[in-house]
What does this fold into?
Amino acid sequence: MRILVTGGAGFIGSHMTCRLLDEGCHVLNVDKLTYAGSLENLGSHLNHPKHRFEKADICDLPKMAALFNDFKPDRILHMAAESHVDRSIDAPQIFIQTNVIGTQNLLLAGLDYWRKLPQDAQDSFRFIHLSTDEVFGALGKDGFFNENSPYRPNSPYAASKASSDLLARSYWKTFDFPVVIMNSSNNYGPRQYPEKLIPLMILNALEEKSLPIYGKGYQMRDWLFVEDHVEALWIALNKAAPGETYCVGGGNDFSNIDLVHALCGILDEMQPRKSGKPYRDLISFVEDRPGHDFRYAIDAGKMKRDLGWRPKADFASGLRTTVTWYLSRQKGLAAIPARERRGKA
Ligand SMILES: NC(=O)c1ccc[n+]([C@@H]2O[C@H](COP(=O)([O-])OP(=O)(O)OC[C@H]3O[C@@H](n4cnc5c(N)ncnc54)[C@H](O)[C@@H]3O)[C@@H](O)[C@H]2O)c1
It folds into this structure.
């Protein structure tokens, strides 16, 4: 298969690009290399003979159209986005540009390209759009999001992703363009930019900085190991029905405070502090994020029933794998200036 990926130098995108190359696919990797993208994330796969990298902005419509016509993909996997909620509160505009306008450009360029394909290639073509469970807003103590949950985004990030989902949906309904929308929960694993909760906590702890937790840390999140997400996307590329939406979750529901305690426990074991004190002593509670959603949880039943996918990672070992990776990269990541590490829990 020839796959056009966007955002393939980011966290999920780099894991997915490596998997596609390992599966024997030809990959055109389109990425603007913002602060969140790095070619280092691709390791030795960067120079894989079937990998072509193109530094480009998905907001550049003529460029996107030219890349479709030149590479002639069988599928597109759209992962490029501005992805951090805190940044969307500080500066929403770029979220509208990349997540809404950028997605619209890819849909438009993709539709134009797809219409010229022979019938059998049109039938098997898929535009896989990565999205988030945050588009559904917040849950109370009970219940789960599923494919029929209403859209109620609460942050500019979630609103921009919701807008892009609705555009994608409209291209299926209006033009029969074979779009598939994947709404996943919080991913974790190696190579995540250290503004997101897990890597931020690990690096701050190792540098003896405070571990800032929003509110009291009671917010609940479902955690999905990135390799389980990659497997879900690979299956979707091969088997997903056009026009469908799938919710993907790891089934690991934890409050932020419990998660940070777990991380501190792993660090106490793997790299004890010189002072001998536990890392959890570094936790500090900060003013809650405006509009902070209380709980997200996913019912991934449709993925399991229709596509035969199941998350495999055990949360405790997934966290250990993640901590081990950050320990091995501590020096390089410490070079990322504090202003770039702006996330809080
Ligand atoms: N990380 C999560 O927990 C999570 C959960 C659900 C959904 N998602 C979605 O999955 C996708 C990937 O998320 P991630 O965490 O890997 O993101 P990331 O921030 O790590 O990577 C995003 C990538 O997109 C690239 N990019 C940004 N703007 C671009 C533009 N205008 N043109 C081209 N490339 C651009 C960046 O350079 C970077 O390589 C996003 O669509 C995100 O909304 C992420």
Summary: The chain has twelve helices and twelve strands. The mean pLDDT is 95.
